[in-house]
Amino acid sequence: MMICMGTGSGPGSNQDTGPTNITSGFTPGIANPGRIHHQTAEDLGMERAIPNATVIAPMDPTDFRAVVEAAVDLPGLTYIRGHRGDTPRLLDPKKFTFELGRTYTLKEGSGIGIIATGHGSQWALEASDILKERGIAHSLLHVPTIKPVNEAEIADFAFAHNQIGTVEDYQIVTGLGSLVAEIVSDIGGGPWITRIGLPNAWAPGGTLPYIRRQLGLDADTMADRIAGGMV
User: Which residue, among 43, 29, 82, has the nearest Cα to 60 in the 3D structure?
Assistant: First the structure.
């Protein structure tokens, strides 16, 4: 589901010189208290396909507010993946600054690389804590801007690791996992990639913890998949 938060519509609204049109998806993925008909797992791919559109998936309230403030000055269509329900504040408002296209290193380390976006970045931090407890070296990159994507920063991060796990509250088709795979394959070679997210199927209904367990998106299972490189 989407709500319009800006001005401008019709022909030209998605052009570089068109009016500002900010749209927010307020029931993204499975991170909402609604039933299965309130799950939105196709939005990122659809918005990515729109020429000149800007697509952003913030990870917490700090990120979201900064994104909205920045989007006011962006021309054309901007799609922001919103939040709903209890969303923890993980980024410090006094230190965080949003820049369109920029990626953010949340954890630095060698070994395994984790690339996440939106609510998936929250989940990745949970899995990161478990990996740390297990003594598994890793790093974590938050990618809020899905389009226009910073291919260079993602490629530099990916090729610095032999193994990558992508994490998102979105289906693994046409989302962040697909985006990272596209960037790596265009260069050639590169790390093993494990895409973690929703399957290309209707998710079950229930509480968020229940759905995450059913889909293998709970922190323990994600840590196992990231560490093991299992598909």
Answer: 82
List pLDDT tens digits, range 32-63: 656 666 777 889 999 999 999 999 999 999 99
- Between the two ends of the chain, the Cα-to-Cα distance in Å is 30
The candidate with the shortest Cα–Cα distance to 165, out of 155, 153, 177, 149, is 177
Question: What domains appear along the chain, each with residue ranges and CATH number?
Answer: 2-81 (3.40.50.970), 104-228 (3.40.50.920)
Residue 81 neighbours by CB under 8 Å, 6+ apart? 24, 25, 28, 43, 44, 55, 56, 57, 58, 118
pLDDT tens, 186-210? 999 999 999 999 998 888 888 888 8
DSSP, res 51: T
The amino acid sitting at 8 is G
Query: Which residues are paired to 105 by β-bridges?
Result: 141
How far apart are alpha carbons 103 and 179 in whole angstroms?
A: 14
Write the CA distances from 118 to 8, 33, 142, 158, 169, integer angstroms.
Answer: 26, 17, 8, 19, 7
The predicted model scores a pTM of 0.89
